[in-house]
Write a structure and sequence with these properties.
about 25% helix, Glycoprotein, Type 4 Pilin, 2 domains
Length: about 190
């Protein structure tokens, strides 16, 4: 999905300011934009030296975009259970990426092969459901897992299911994103 360029810097500034606030660091005020009040879902991804440092987001548009980005930025920095909370000394070395999601669209399929044939690598973010188990990968994950079967297998693992799992309760939804990323920052 093409990025709406003028919105990107605003969202990145809001994400970075929210993290700075949470860490008690000084920062410039983030610019305002009327689109921040629209209900949209977002993910905030943090990287350091090219490696994932946190990623938290929303799959449904349940609050205004500005609020969603700020909350997800703080959660990615401090509450992603895969990482220790971000330390104030890391703040300048972290790169922020914001993804804004379209509404998920549920796929209709006969079996796993049919579901796989409908996925578009590089474009589709995917949500895998099996009862209470759920996991998602943003479209950016296709860069590491370009083959649909491997992509879906890793998504099943993320949902704490075997890679070869398939059952009658499986549901799959896809979405697209607009995304913006800060330019590389040097590692101190």
């Amino acid at each position: 999905m093409p990025a709406t360029d003028a919105l990107g810097p605003v969202l990145l500034a809001h994400a970075r300011a929210a993290i700075a606030d949470a860490l008690g660091l000084p920062h410039a005020p983030a610019p305002e934009d009327p689109r921040l009040s629209e209900r949209r879902a977002s993910f905030v991804t943090l990287t350091r030296a090219g490696e994932l440092r946190g990623c938290i987001g929303s799959l449904s548009a349940h609050r205004p975009l500005g609020e969603d980005v700020r909350a997800n930025a703080v959660a990615a920095a401090l509450k992603d259970s895969r990482f220790p909370p971000l330390d104030a000394r890391e703040f300048d070395a972290v790169r922020v990426e914001v993804s804004v999601l379209t509404a998920p669209e549920f796929l209709e399929f006969r079996d796993e092969a049919d579901a796989l044939s409908q996925l578009v690598p590089g474009r589709d973010g995917v949500i895998f459901f099996n009862g209470c188990q759920k996991a998602t990968f943003l479209p950016q994950v296709w860069a590491q897992l370009p083959e649909p079967r491997a992509f879906l297998a890793a998504l099943k693992q993320k949902a704490r299911l075997p890679v070869d799992f398939w059952g009658p309760n499986v549901m799959i939804a896809r979405y697209e994103v607009e995304k913006w990323k800060e330019s590389e920052v040097p590692t101190p």
